[in-house]
Amino acid sequence: MLKTRLIPILFLKNGLIVRSETFSDFREIGNPINQLKRLSDWEIDELIYVDITREGGYDLKRSDHKIKGKKEIISILKEIAKSTSMPLTFGGRIKSIEQVDAYMANGADKVIINTGVYDSPELISNVSSKYGSQAIVVGIDIKKEGTLYNMYVKNGQKKVKDDPLNYAKKVESLGAGEIFINSIDRDGTGKGYDINIIKKIISSVNIPVIAAGGAGTFDDFIELAEETCVSAIAAGNIFNFTEHAYPRAKKELKRAGINVR
Amino acid sequence: MIKPPNIEYCKKCVYPAIAATPLTFDKDGVCSGCRASNQKDEINWEDRKEKFLRLVERYRNKDGSNYDCIIPVSGGKDSYFQIHIIKNICGLNPLLVTYHGNNYTPTGMKNLLNMREVFDCDHIFFTPSIEVLKTMNRLGQLMMGDMNWHGHAGIFTYPIRVAVKEKVPLMIWGEHGFMDLGGMHSYNDFVEFTYRYRHEHCLRGYEWYDFVKQAQHFGEKLEKKQLIQWMYPADEEIEEVGVRGIYISNYFKWEANEHGKIMIEKYGFKEAEEPFERTYRRMSNLDDMHENGIHDYMKYIKFGYGRATDHVCKDIRSGKMNRQEGIKIVKKMDNIKPKDLFRWLDYVGWSEKKFDQVADSFRDPRVWIKDSSGKWTKCNIWDK
Fold this sequence. Notes:
Chain A is built from 9 helices and 12 strands. By secondary structure, chain A is an alpha/beta fold. Chain A is globular. In chain B, α3 (77-89) packs across α12 (256-267). Chain B is mainly alpha-helical. Chain B is built from 17 helices and 7 strands. In chain B, the strands form 3 sheets. Chain B has a 3-stranded parallel β-sheet with strand order 1-2-3, sandwiched between helices. A two-stranded parallel sheet of chain B has the order 4-5. Chain B has a two-stranded antiparallel ribbon with strand order 6-7. Chain B has a domain at 42-250: Rossmann fold (3-Layer(aba) Sandwich), CATH 3.40.50. The chains are: A alpha/beta, B mainly alpha. The interface between A and B is large, with 34 and 44 residues.
């Protein structure tokens, strides 16, 4: 049986790691390099790195720190790829195959695209025919409103009419290798994963599903793994909050009998 | 006319967007520090206290063979409050640990000695070599414009070394500084002490080995063997004991002014006998003579604001002061060059000219510009 992966996500806004809540409240946690070094020390299964910058440039803000200056995303990617063997998924603001080429040439193993493939679905087959379907992860952001699950694009700011389940089937048929779902209403709240919609997405497709959004304690990881056949458990904030969070979470998952590396 | 770069200020408090503390602004121009502070009123603190009691209970030593926890203390009002909660409310047996950077004020030292007596706890009071401290003072100033780096590094390294050595898995910190001031975290995060936070935010990404490396470049002498107590334990050592550091401010509503008053009445804590030059508060940061002095003056040199701004923001958020009153204080105090500078110059053997030259090299170009007469100028909150 395949092992369930545990994947930290770094959300980057204007060059800094942020703590995100409901896709609308962002707090700056620090520069990506230091946290990447920690994640690399812990030999994590995989890393997802998403640039959620909406406007403006990159600025690390502190001129009196050891790590200085501005870093744009490609040079950060190069630096990570150089120093680590963990598989890297890069994404955020990808609109064209040329951007994908640049990421792949500089050390990314996969790309994650959300709005870019919603606007131009042919991007999925362009990436998969060039790099293989395992290289393209399609992101779907979902918000529960009343009893309905609605789909959003553009950093959770634009609601679209598509049904998330049908859309998941559609991107699978276009050649997506994996689906990454995130919950806008649970993001950063620590209320736990939205098991209901995650289950439905998983059963509507045959490709692996990575789920994110809402982890508040390591028990939420265990619940997600026990209740669903999720291929990977992903989380952003929680790995930034406590010491040795990643290895300690793995230990808890193992203790609960979850099949992790 | 040379125009300084524009700086955005929080619409509610007086925090600038370019700051030593990471913070973000919402669409109404309100900073994350104010947002985190508002959250304090929505929290069920009784519930949090229960959570805390359950958590620490798991760490209580059952057979009296070891301490229940470690409390890093300076002897300030927050230290008193931490021990008050741990020893007198929870009935735990803590080991107090102090890093002594050789900068104690007379009042700070009185408070520290009184603290260990009134609370009747075991206390480790560690002092590094004074010559090494002087070198670290100079190098910190040269490398990053902070003569007190040794202090931050000592405070955030020595206690966890003791935790590992004594096999005490729980450390009790007071408030999470960057969360309280800049709103780095939500109260729902239950953020704990991490190497990354210490390394990046408290130590600016530098470690002891950077000092050894840079010493020669700056004509100083420093060896690895002199810096043992600044060495962070290895991940494996920490995991073996399972050390974690929790912040009391996630479990008890943190009201610095209120806590101070209670500590004075109940335990004989003393306010600073002399007023500070760079802040109006007499209860905060009073143990170290340079914390409210040149260490903080360097923040003004770098980012254009200082401790008065920090304290005004906290007091505006807690409703103790309005923004107009706050701006007046900031205008009066943030730019003062404090007199403790002369103790420091004498201590490390520098001239004031050298200090100023080094200091000026750290002015952030996003804040400061030289006007036509060669004077440093910036965009001020009272000009807005």
